[in-house]
Amino acid sequence: MTQPADATPGWLLGNGALGGNVQTIWPAVVCKRVDGFRPTFVRERWTTPDDDFIDVDWLEPAGAVTIDTPLLVLFHGLEGSSASHSVRPYAQVAQQLGWRFAVPHFRGCSGHPNLTARAYHSGDFEEVGWILDRFAARHAGPCVAVGISLGGNALLRWAQEAGESACARVEALAAVSSPVDLTACGHAIRRGFNQQGYTRMFMRSLRPKALQKLQRFPGLFSHEKMLAARDLYDFDNLYTAPVHGFRNAEDYWSKASAKPHLHRIRVPALLLNALNDPFVPAASLPRPAEVGPHVTLWQPSRGGHTGFTAGRFPGRLVDIPTRVLHWLRPQG
User: Fold this and answer.
1) Which residue among 149, 177, 178, 257 is the active-site one?
2) Pairing of strands 100-104, 295-298
3) What pTM value is reported for the model?
4) Is 57 a catalytic residue?
5) Catalytic: which of 35, 231, 305, 319?
6) Which positions of the chain have pLDDT values less than 50?
7) Is 302 within 8 Å of 221 (Cβ atoms)?
């Protein structure tokens, strides 16, 4: 399918690094406050096979639900939730289309600490597979999935591992602003403004959650080292990697990255990445020769990280979700 033209307006400062940061921050700070859409969710709690839980938020449907009603399952990004500014536009478009819409929260991201030492990570394809199995068991109509940032990489890793069987769970999927090369992205977010801005924001959320786990599971990691952790590399090296079965941060980033395995995907998959994303370097993005025939690449020059604002000042966020869902809809 033909790649859509850039929708990001010129008043958001264009294609360069400054524009990428503005286009990332503006939607989170401004657009979400003026878009007027306030979704109403109903929460379910699912018990996992290891006696933990996943909280799933269902959007209240706008009309009648039939056996043919499509379901959109959205996997949020790092420390995201159903309240994230990047999630809400997909809920809005799904409701306009008359689809069901659900957000399964990765462990610890629903506002309630989970019960086990493990949390979630960018390559957590086993958890994604279990979640999609649950949706398939209860929804008779077509199902499509979208993953935002970390959630998109995890969704792609699931599709790669599932192979042909992925088509029995979803009819198509999309990964938006996903760090498919975790090593490149992990180093990019440690530099300059990324370190001072985005990394500090993530660490303000991740560190307290990890320390809360340490209280419940003494000896899980060093309290002093966690307090001294400066960035996601330190956090992944100390907590994410060892708790989830990886040797260290480098091993985790290497094995969890979706980019090396995109040729294994056997379900229609869309990868959308802006070339000026501040911490997903354009040079790290896959090229057409690196993906299989089931994968479509959209790489607009503007949009930042999960930004993709469109229209007149102050901008709207539904344009790219509309394009993504219309790409998914013919598949289902």
Assistant:
1) 149
2) unpaired
3) 0.94
4) no
5) 305
6) 1-2, 332
7) no
